Amino acid sequence: MKIKSNIVEQDTGSTATTTRSTATERTRQQNVNSIYCSVRNGVITNKASQFRNTLWSDYTSRFIIKPEEIAAAEKACPGTATLVRLTPEQISQKFIESAKTLGIENPGMDVQTVQAVLNILNPQQAVTESKIYISEEINKMKYLLGYQRGKVISEQQSNPQLKQLLSQLQTVLKDKFNQAIGIDGNWGNISQVAFEDAVKSVDITKRRQADTQQTGAIQQLPQNVTPTSTEQDPLLNRDQRRDRQDLRRDQRRTRQDLRTQQRAEDELAAAQVGGQVDPLLNRDQRRDRQDLRRDQRRTRQDLRTQQRDQRQ
Q1: Can you give the pLDDT at residue 118?
Q2: pLDDT at position 17
Q3: 112/264 Cα distance (integer angstroms)
Q4: What pLDDT digit, counting tens, does each position of 140-187 carry?
Q5: What's the Cα-to-Cα distance from 78 to each of 43, 72, 73, rounded to whole Å?
């Protein structure tokens, strides 16, 4: 019996260990999935992760991510992650596309475009010193450095003015848009991903402002224009208020007629002689009371109809 008891205890301990191991593996795979699905251009973009703006290659080597774990993560979000890092030429093209999204005309990886991006992303604090420096030295820079518009980053890294502006842009991305990036003036995959996130947030803000302006325009529509959203026509509200006022006026008149009728009945009762009352007078009073009740019923029905219309 003792041997059997030991066997049972060993089996129970083995089962508990297996359960803990399975739970740990499940948790690890969930973490890998959340990180993998946020990778863009080889950079982790998960805002809830401490590894945000970390290279996917560094993450996999640090935690020894297995191929089967990557395959399981791919099934969780097929075709979403882009694990390959961009080349300098591709980064320049992505930068130009993002600048076009901000509304910059004929952008390039150049001083003018970066300055325009800074003015859009950080309008409250324009880089005035850089503007002055640019206006004084732009022609000299083009002549001395052989500047050509649209050159890729790798061909312009020796440009001190461009590198200074890129450092300022990285500072804006870090301080204003809470992007965890370094400030070194070197524009790579991590800086470009952070820039794209900032452009998206600016685009969303513009859309919200446009929706707000559209809503205000709808509220100011003229009388012959039908609203196209959930906003109600102010003229319709005015007509509803008038209907309610007319209904209350009819109710007051009905109550006054009722009081008049009651006073007439009291006077009739006081004018009775020997308990005898003119039958024609009684008949007329009954008809008046019937008409009064009929008017009251109609008034109540109109009130209910009006309330239903207002709820709709």
Answers
A1: 92
A2: 72
A3: 93
A4: 555 455 555 555 555 545 688 899 999 999 999 999 898 888 899 899
A5: 17, 10, 8
Rounded Cα–Cα distance for residues 34 and 52 (Å): 11
What distance, in Å, lies between the first and last C-alpha atoms of the chain?
78
Which pairs count as long-range contacts for 140-147, CB under 8 Å and 24+ apart, including other chains? 141/111, 147/110
- Chain-centre distance for alpha carbon 48: 18
What is the full DSSP assignment across 162-201? HHHHHHHHHHHHHHTS------SS---HHHHHHHHHHHHH
The CA distance from 21 to 28, in Å, is: 11
| Amino acid in the structure at residue 193 | V
Alpha helix stretches (DSSP H) within the chain: 2-36, 56-63, 67-76, 88-101, 111-121, 128-145, 160-175, 189-219, 234-270, 279-311
| Residue 8 to residue 2: CA distance in whole angstroms | 10
Question: Is residue 110 a contact partner of residue 149, using CB atoms and an 8 Å limit?
Answer: yes
* 168 class by beta-carbon count within 10 Å (0-12 exposed, 13-18 middle, 19+ buried): buried
Write the CA distances from 39 to 17, 63, 178, 272, integer angstroms: 34, 16, 18, 100
> Tell me: the pLDDT tens digits for 10-54?
555 566 677 778 888 899 999 999 999 999 989 999 888 889 889
- Low-confidence winner among 52-56, 85-89, 112-116, 273-277 (lowest mean pLDDT): 273-277
